[in-house]
Amino acid sequence: MLKEIITKSLDDLQINNDNFVDKISFIKIYLSYEQNNGKQIIISFEKNYFDESCILVTFYENYIYKSKLSRKITLFGNIVDILHNLIINELNLYVTDLNIPYTFIINITNDIAKINDSSYFEFTKNQDNNTTYHNCPVCYNDYTMDNKIRLKCGHYICITCFIEIIKTKTYSCPCCRQIFI
After folding, report:
1. Given pLDDT bands bounded at 50, 70 and 90, which one contains residue 135?
2. Is residue 34 packed enough to be buried (19+ CB in 10 Å), middle (13-18) or exposed (0-12)?
3. 80-84 long-range CB contacts below 8 Å, 24 or more apart?
4. Domain range 137-181, its CATH number among 3.30.40, 3.10.620, 3.40.50, 2.60.40
5. What is the distance between the alpha carbons of residues 175 and 32, in angstroms, rounded to a whole number?
6. Taking the CB of residue 129, how many other CB atoms lie within 10 A of it?
7. Secondary structure, 3-state, 73-126
């Protein structure tokens, strides 16, 4: 899901593997928790004094600047894979809670981000610092923001599968079996 968002955003900005090295400094990636828009990460790109590519990551809490860091990066590879890995890396550093799915709002732009133009994706940090993209654990279809339900245990399922579970009167989470009614 995140790779599709990145691909669409780059297409909208007319950035591809042939021209991204020249245009990377114009890209800004805005990330915020859906549950708390004031908690944000803004990723931008710049060259350092030695003409090396760097990622500049700025953190905000309650819309107020908290900290900033810069890291050298390589731009050798596919732009979608590069941006995907950089975003996941920053979220793994920023998100502290393990095994809790968070919905993030993302906007990749060369301008000021507008919340109405943003997309949503799910991110879960697990023990191995890997991420899990959320599909319904029952039917494996991708979630959209309109078709998922969070159960009391914190797991999500799609509305269609939720209705089927209710019809069968099972009332337990398909992931952990906790009763949700």
Report:
1. low
2. middle
3. 80/3, 80/6, 80/7, 80/10, 81/3, 83/6, 83/10, 83/27, 83/29, 83/108, 84/2, 84/3, 84/6
4. 3.30.40
5. 27
6. 11
7. CCCCCCHHHHHHHHHHHHHHHHCCCECCCEEEEEEEECCCCCHHHCEEEEECEC
CB 57 within 8 A of CB 31: no
Which residues, including other chains, have CB under 8 Å from residue 136's CB and lie 6 or more apart?
143, 148, 156, 157, 158, 160, 161
Q: Per residue in 57-114, pLDDT tens?
A: 999 999 999 999 888 888 888 899 899 889 988 888 787 777 778 888 899 988 877 7
Q: Give the integer Cα–Cα distance in Å for 164 and 141.
A: 15
Using the Cα atoms of residue 171, residue 173, residue 177 and residue 179 in order, give the sign of their dihedral. Answer: negative
Q: How far apart are CA 18 and CA 1, in angstroms?
A: 23
In the chain, the N- to C-terminal Cα span, in Å, equals 30
Task: Kindly list the domain boundaries of the chain, sorted by start residue.
Answer: 2-134, 137-181
